Task: structure prediction
Amino acid sequence: MLVLLQRPDFLLEHRSNTRHPVSIDTTVTFEETQSGQKIVNLSLGGALLTFGERLPIGSRLTLVFRLPTAEADISVGAVVRWTAEESIGVQFDGLRAREVWSLNEYFKQFEE
Result:
């Protein structure tokens, strides 16, 4: 979840999940078209992806990717929450328990 609180002198951003810098290949499906993209940061709630085009806010996507700690691909629905020149921010629709476990195992390397 992303909450933006605007105050006269600054903009404060608060996320409920920590995002971790990564470089993970993903297949993105948007309107029945698949493309290879890169996840550049990742959390339990969503991700930042490099993306060569701007997608409308609210667009629904499916991401499929594999973590080193996972025995199977993670396939998750997502919604575009923001877009920039060559990147998009997405919020996951929901992860299954084994996917949450895999992500948490993967994130342990960032705690060291």
